[in-house]
Write the structure tokens for this entry.
Amino acid sequence: MSEYNGENTFIECLWILDSRSGICIFEQNYVDITKDNVSVDIISSFFSAILSIARESFVDQIQYIKFSKRKIFFKFHEDLLFIISVKDTPRGNDFWVQKTIQQIAEQFIAKYKPQLMNFDGNISQFNGFSDDLEKIVREKPLPLRILQVEQLKEGFKKFISFQIKLYKKRKKAFEKIIEQIKKDFMDNYRYLNKL
């Protein structure tokens, strides 16, 4: 078995799902592994579907899925599912991935046990885990999510502003047409009354 070099730079993404609902309650990205910024909802739905099939069809639990360039590791812990995407490295590193995912699971549950027992759907309460995760992984995550939200807000503001201007322009054109129709009608009415 190859020796682990002490760096946790192999982790690309981490997702923590509520295994009962399939809701992603925490996400951290170190590398953007998706095409066109695929939503976490699609990813968590994909994992939930695979795990449901595995639970219904097989006796044992799924440990990982291997893609051509990465592996997706799974760790069930109480009602949570911890998922880590890693670069596909030599098999010896699987041990370190399993050890890291176990450490993440234990620390998350220790920190948020009361919130998890009374989970009300508010996932923002778990945002503070980013600091804990940074200590475990020893790497800063991508600021991708915040940028996407801000870009989305700006894009939406521009879209709404454009639509309002377009509406006002069309409203003015429509009002001119109505005025012209009224004028033509009155002109025709006066002409017909003169006859």
Remarks:
- The beta strands are 11-18, 24-29, 64-66, 70-77, 80-87.
- The first strand starts at residue 11 and ends at 18.
- Residues 143-195 form one domain.
- Confidence is low (pLDDT under 50) at residues 1-8.
